[in-house]
TrEMBL record:
It comes from Caenorhabditis tropicalis. InterPro entries: Globin-like_sf, Globin/Proto, Mb-like_M. Gene3D superfamilies: Globins. SUPFAM superfamilies: Globin-like. This is GLOBIN domain-containing protein.
């Protein structure tokens, strides 16, 4: 009998509607160490007003990167300045922000890795119901989830380095983002 057949069976527990395997199957446990997870949380917390920054990045995504997403979020007829106030678009920004807040807190503060993984799986499952995402993925091989995540990875960095900052502009309905020229002194 091979060693693998003698190995103890991995225990699975049912949480909510899905089966969650043991910790070794959890990518947050398998691919990140405690320091990585703490760093993720601390990095997220370093953002000055993350909800606002998430909103601005989503504005760029639907206006400049993937305008096809406008319709899904109900902003296809709205001018850019009014989009943040539209219920579906504004609601998604809030949910995205809350998702990041909860996820990074579970990873870096409470160390609830099972909860973190469940949250990601639950969110993934709820998006399968979005016919738009599935159709594009299957027929056009266009993964909007991946596109959104990559834009966020790229666009959050200048806010962390201080290259981009939010500036309140009372004459406009929203804040403006200012690009700073950073001088590196030796
Ligand atoms: C990393 C990328 C994304 C994250 C983290 C995210 C997160 C969330 C969360 C937390 C919710 C609310 C709870 C839930 O239904 O699970 C939600 C709902 C929703 N998401 Fe996303 N989302 C992402 C990308 C997208 C994309 C690319 C689309 C484009 C179709 C989309 C469309 C929707 C829609 C239509 C809802 C339904 C609720 C509503 O009307 O706001 N999401 N999303």
């Amino acid at each position: 009998m091979g060693a693998s057949l003698c190995a103890p069976k991995k225990k699975k527990t049912q949480v909510g509607a899905s089966w969650v395997g043991n910790e070794s199957e959890n990518p947050f446990d398998a691919t990140l160490n405690k320091k990585d997870r703490t760093l993720l949380r601390e990095t997220w917390q370093r953002l000055d007003d993350p909800k606002d920054i998430v909103g601005h990045i989503f504005l760029d995504i639907v206006n400049d990167v993937e305008p096809d997403l406008k319709k899904v979020f109900g902003v296809d007829r709205a001018p850019r300045a009014a989009m943040l106030k539209m219920p579906k678009f504004g609601g998604h920004i809030l949910r995205f922000y809350e998702f990041m807040e909860q996820l990074t807190s579970m990873l870096g503060t409470s160390e609830n890795l099972t909860g973190a993984w469940q949250l990601v799986r639950k969110t993934g499952r709820s998006h399968v119901k979005q016919g738009f995402l599935e159709q594009n993925q299957n027929q056009m091989e266009k993964n909007y989830f991946e596109i959104v995540i990559n834009v966020f990875i790229e666009r959050l960095i200048p806010f962390l380095t201080g290259e981009q900052v939010r500036v309140m502009d009372r004459s406009r309905s929203d804040d403006i983002i200012v690009h700073l020229q950073i001088e590196i002194k030796n």
